[in-house]
Amino acid sequence: MDNRIYMDHAATTRLTSEALDAMMPYFQEKFGNASSLHTFGRETRGAADNARAQIAEAINTTPEEIIFTSGGTEADNLAIKGIAEANEDKGNHIITSKIEHPAVLNTCKYLAKNGYDVTFLDVDEYGMISLEDLKDSITEKTILISIMFANNEIGTIQPIKQIGEIAREKGIIFHTDAVQAAGSVPIDVEAMNIDVLSASAHKMYGPKGIGMLYVRRGVKIASHMHGGSHEGKKRAGTENVPSIVGFGQAFELAVQNMEENTKNITELRERLIEGIKAEIPNVKLNGHRTKRLPGNVNFCFEFIEGESLILMLDMRGIAASTGSACAAGSLEPSHVLMAIGLKHEIAHGSLRLTLGKSNTKDDVDTVIEQLKDVVGKLREMSPLFAQEKVEAQYV
Ligand code: PLP
Question: How far apart (Å, rounded) are the C-alpha atoms in residues 68 and 210?
Fold first, then answer.
């Protein structure tokens, strides 16, 4: 490893050696098609079944209720379009929030263009939905509530159990995009009243290109991949056995080590938040102060552009992000920061630092020091900052 500091774990994580080791035999040695009846096939079927059981246990369900997909995006698409299509006879109203990941937001927008009625709930300044608003927006035609478990930009964790209770009381299906939460915070689909849940391996030190959708037994969902009868006829295509095995291993490990990782990472997060607030003026922490993912830190730095910050930090060997990986490259301010009520000019100065299990106190201290310097330099070059200084003289 080089000495660069990686603080972009919400974008993706490094595959753990345990997952890599578990995957290796399934590339060459054990290459059978998991649907084949011979020994080669039975060998890989067994490995995929084992991973399905590891994942089911991680969220407290049964293996039959897990469908493997190519990632979180596909899982979200399958959940929302699949439930909408299979439950057309019951209604056409879907409730979601304004701060969902594009995988949910754009899927809902697509359905809205195709005859569905979609309510996009507002959130408060911390990124929380209101349970009252949720209850008020339910109609006789509501078939699905899709609210993310934890936000990928600001880390806010929603009141999932209560949302599930409201949905269950009304007989509405509750889907949650748990791509950022899974592997970082405890998930129990039974205790939390979750009917459908998306997760992705690469956010929890597993391989990229593999995800899953939990679908509670009895929930009607239409398949969008037409083909063979894989994954309980819900998602056709030859199983990606090495990745499935890696996912199972990564999820099991994440749950086993969750308590320790959460403790360490939360401590680092607090050190980083307090350090930035103490060392750099004119900053604002985004997201909920306590109900947030252990590793998420998101700040706005007044008078500067988030992109310049990222580039200057990168030149100093620090990997951070502005908004979500998917929104990067767009000049629009983040829809999440807009939804929590930030002004355009403030939202443009956002920086997301997401900590992971390999980060140390030294990393945090280096980031605070470098950030202070970079922010100072960028502000010196900023016409907005110069103007602010002039105006301040006359106050
Ligand atoms: N949902 C959330 C909340 C995410 O953060 C992401 C990825 O950033 C996704 C969905 C998409 O997952 P994937 O990258 O596995 O397609």
Answer: 7
Compute the distance from residue 145 Cα to the ligand 1 centre, in Å: 18
Amino acid at 150: A
Rounded to the nearest 5 degrees, what angle is found at the Cα of 321, between the Cα atoms of 319 and 326?
125
Best mutation site among 152, 292, 336 for ligand 1, i.e. most ligand atoms within 8 A of its Cβ? 152
4-24: average pLDDT:
98
**225, 326, 328, 384: which one is catalytic?**
326
- Indicate if 326 belongs to the active site: yes
Whether 177 contacts 149, CB under 8 Å: yes
β-bridge partners, 319: 6
345/88 Cα distance (integer angstroms): 42
The confidence score (pLDDT) of residue 66 equals 98
Atom in ligand 1 nearest the alpha carbon of residue 178: 3
| Residues having CB within 6 Å of any atom of ligand 1 | 71-73, 76, 101, 103, 148, 152, 177, 179-180, 200, 211, 324-325
Q: If we measure between CA atoms, which residue out of 192, 191, 287, 203 comes closest to residue 251? A: 203
pLDDT, one tens digit per residue, over 324-341 is 444 445 567 899 999 999
The per-residue pLDDT of the chain, averaged, comes to: 95
The atom of ligand 1 lying closest to the CA of 324 is 8
Is residue 370 within 8 Å of residue 379, measured between CB atoms? no
For atom 4 of ligand 1, the residue with the nearest CA is 179
Atom nearest to 12 CA in ligand 1: 8
- Give the residue whose CA is nearest to atom 12 of ligand 1: 72
Residue 1 CB: number of other CB atoms within 10 A? Answer: 6
CA atoms of 115 and 136, how far apart (whole Å): 22
What region does 96 belong to: left with phi over 0, alpha with psi -120 to 50, or beta?
A: beta
What are residue 212's DSSP bridge partners?
68, 199
pTM of the shown model: 0.96
Q: How far apart are CA 12 and CA 201, in angstroms?
A: 9
Report the alpha-carbon distance of residue 296 to residue 324 in Å, rounded.
12
Residue 328 confidence (pLDDT): 47
